[in-house]
Amino acid sequence: MKSSIFILLGATALYACSNNASHQEASHTDTSHAGHDHSAMEAPKDTTAILPTQHVLFGNLKDSQTIKLPFIVKFGVEGMEVKPAMGVEANVGHHHLMVDQGHIPAGTMVPMQKETEGYFHFGKGQLQDTLQLKKYPMLTPGYHTLTLQFANGLHLSYGPAMSKTITVKVK
Hints:
Layout: H1 2-29, E1 55-58, E2 65-67, E3 71-78, E4 81-82, E5 92-99, E6 119-122, E7 128-131, E8 142-151, E9 163-170
Parallel strand pairs: 2-9, 4-5
Antiparallel strand pairs: 1-3, 3-7, 5-6, 5-8, 8-9
């Protein structure tokens, strides 16, 4: 009796596995229906056209300003909306702050997890940060450029039209 049950269970499992493999094979070859492999799909592209009224800005810094650390820097944007990085929406994005780096070309991913190289990501929709040596060790006394770059939810840059670079003197 026990051996009959094990044979029946084994046959059922074998059938289920072979049936599942056939279904998976079909889903990888047939892309004409909703059951196809989604990993092969392209990521949505952002086709937002930048208008002359859209730009980013430093809310409390001007070019050539002298600052003393710690310093709270405020990020702003006009003509677009700041939201956490979660996919692509027209006229929506988040800020990246770069120290001693220039703007990122449009459609190019902003470098991520490169803080030691001067790339800082604000994908939660933050509108400010505190410049301090612990987080920004490259902000030694002297002149530095700060570039604010706006990017979409996939971290793809909106390009130079949605960036702002200024020079600051750190005391």
